[in-house]
Amino acid sequence: MKTGIIIPCYNEANRIDQQAFVDFAISHQDYHLCFVNDGSTDNTNDILEKMQWKSPYNISIVDIKKNAGKAAAVRSGSQYMYGIPEITSIGFIDADLSTDFRDFKDLVKTLHRDEKLMVFGSRNMGTGAGIKRDLMRNLLSKFIKQFIGMILGLPIRDTQCGAKVFKREIVPFVYGKSFLSRWLFDVEIFLRLKKYLGKEKVMKQIVEQPLMRWVHVEDSKLGMKDALKIPFNLTQIWLNYALTNSGNTVVVDHDFTIAASTLSTQRTAA
Fold first, then answer.
1. What is the C-alpha separation between 105 and 119, in angstroms, rounded?
2. How open is the CA angle 251-5-268, to the nearest 5 degrees?
3. What tens digit of pLDDT does each residue of 147-182 get?
4. What is the pLDDT of the chain when averaged over all its residues?
5. Are the C-beta atoms of 214 and 121 separated by less than 8 Å?
6. Alpha-carbon span 40 to 185, nearest angstrom
7. How far is 45 from 37, CA to CA, in rounded Å?
């Protein structure tokens, strides 16, 4: 069994910890790292290629030529990973390693031990001594949390943590359709799971697990202008998933599985 980790990257040349990723890849052959270069305008792709050269069998790169946002990058990575048969679970973390590998491995361990469909990290459960946030982000996080709670109607404390892992079987239902939002796709993930599994069953199939460490790294790609759009974007998501038929049906997009198969073939040929 292997676990695939998607790492979306946009202009990460100055802050990605190359050695940490390479060391992890070399020492963990049961993991496969998939870096998605989301239209970076710096030399991020060159750095990723150097990292791949050091561990070619379990580091892959998906290169998106035009910036499409984190949601599209993670979805592209999931298509690639789904096309590799030996991968039994697929997750994602941020390129700045605000959630470290130790915590992510704990999420994977819970996923398989407890036979859940999804396990995700939480910065809001009060057990992680290493959780650090700046004041503005803390205030914004509390506001967003209340709004998201109203939309989801589920007892989830932290939807936006950038560390989540899924069993392979649920991946086409989570990522089968394009996301409405570039950044708030985590909310859409929970709405899709809620629709697919039902409100009562969904909480039995997912686990919110406290992180031991999470640190906000400066130079975030989500600026104040983007932050001010969050209430509007959340309202759009709510309207599409709660009030219209298009958001109320979880459908596997056949293009997803076709793309996954094609990417797998290209990887094998390479």
1. 11
2. 85
3. 899 999 999 999 999 999 999 999 999 999 999 999
4. 86
5. yes
6. 20
7. 6
Contact 8, 87 (CB under 8 A): no
DSSP, res 96: T
Identity of the residue numbered 83: G
| DSSP state at residue 104 | H
Q: What is the pTM of this model?
A: 0.87
Q: Report the chain's C-alpha Rg in angstroms.
A: 18
**Positions of the chain with pLDDT under 50:** 127-128, 246-249, 265, 268-270
Q: What is the pLDDT of residue 265?
A: 47
DSSP string of 192-244?
Answer: HHHHHH-HHHHHHHEEEEE-SEEEPPSS-SS-HHHHHTHHHHHHHHHHHHHSS
Q: What is the pLDDT of residue 239?
A: 92
Amino acid in position 47: I
- Residue 101: phi and psi, rounded to 5, are -65, -35
What whole-number distance in Å separates Cα of residue 74 and Cα of residue 82? 12
